[in-house]
Design goal:
alpha/beta, Rossmann fold, seven-stranded mixed beta sheet, globular
Length: 221
């Protein structure tokens, strides 16, 4: 699972470096064990995170990454990049969540997210047995790219969707070519191995049904 997480986050770094900023202050909301922040820090970014897990907070701090337990602890700081990878679908109010992230942006800053998408959900209308591969009790909302654009538009945000199913196969070569260092990650002490297997199986089914299981998106004012 760590390898899967790392590959997914590598995709995110690829998009940030290639399409947007090569330096700056980054806040990762729901940073977990700080995989994304470790990679960015090793490439010259100033990083910090927000995370509710006490284990993850301590883990990050031991690795020299400052982590807050809630947004209110940040104070008046602003950031060039505010990321939220696989977070927005867990929020009770996605619009309120995005509003709180907007307040953390520097004048030229942007929000960088990844979220699961169900653009082909009508396909499941006559196949209810397949919903178990899409629905999660921890996902309070399900998005399409259209609904993401709608919500962002209501908040005055422009949306740039990034979807590249070939990226996983090519990203390692891109990093080597650019000379971008990738620190070795340790075993994840939070999530047990049996969840890894379910995660991989569900994602493979999801991709078969919809062609892609998630998209990255830049949100900017």
């Amino acid at each position: 699972m760590d390898e899967v997480i790392r590959t997914d986050l590598n995709d995110g770094i690829h998009h940030i470096i290639r399409h947007k900023k090569t330096s700056g202050k980054v806040l990762d909301f729901g940073c977990g064990l700080g995989f994304l922040l470790q990679i960015l820090k090793s490439n010259g970014y100033s990083v910090s995170g927000v995370e509710i897990s006490k284990i993850a907070i301590e883990y990050n701090r031991k690795n020299g990454i400052p982590v807050f337990s809630e947004i209110g602890d940040i104070g008046g700081s602003t950031f060039d990049i505010v990321s939220a990878i696989d977070v927005i679908e867990h929020m009770e109010s996605p619009m309120d969540f995005l509003r709180s992230l907007i307040q953390l942006l520097s004048p030229q800053g942007f929000i960088f997210i990844r979220l699961p998408v169900i653009n082909g959900a009508l396909f499941l209308k006559d196949r209810p047995e397949e919903w178990k591969f899409v629905y999660s009790p921890y996902h309070l909302h399900m998005f399409s790219t259209t609904s993401l654009r709608y919500i962002a538009g209501k908040l005055g945000l422009k949306v740039e969707i990034i979807q590249d199913p070939k990226l996983h196969a090519t990203f390692s070569g891109y990093l080597i070519q650019k000379g971008i260092s990738m620190p070795r990650m340790r075993h994840n002490p939070i999530v047990p191995p049996w969840i890894y297997a379910k995660y991989l199986f569900a994602r493979s089914r999801y991709k078969k049904m919809f062609g892609s299981d998630a998209v990255f998106a830049f949100l900017s004012r």
